[in-house]
Design brief:
Protein name: Conjugal transfer protein TraR
GO molecular function: zinc ion binding
Keywords: Metal-binding, Zinc, Zinc-finger
Structural class: mainly alpha
InterPro entries: Znf_DskA_TraR, Znf_DskA_TraR_CS
Number of strands: 0
Radius of gyration: 15 Å
Distance between the termini: 36 Å
Length: about 80
């Protein structure tokens, strides 16, 4: 039972973080891009900063966030596997 509750809590936390990130991105869409990822602290490539104004995550963290969001929505992660 505790494992299920822990998983639910992790999902709630992830949803909360994703909502916060979405709001931050909407607020900063026309603002300056961050130079460091707000998730992992790694440097965000300059070409990504220029391509996506207001970007706040590196490519890898963004990919992970999008996969987790799909899993939470029930879309699974199979679509992300390479063929």
């Amino acid at each position: 039972m505790a494992d299920v509750l822990d998983q639910l809590q992790e999902q709630e936390d992830l949803i909360h973080r994703l909502h916060i990130q979405a709001v931050r991105q909407q607020l900063s869409v026309k603002g300056e891009s961050l130079t460091r990822c707000e998730c992992c602290g790694n440097r965000i490539q300059e070409r990504r900063q220029k391509a996506i104004p207001g970007v706040s995550t590196c490519t890898e963290c963004q990919r992970v966030l999008e996969i987790r969001e799909k899993i939470i929505r029930g879309e699974g992660w199979e679509a992300e596997k390479p063929m």
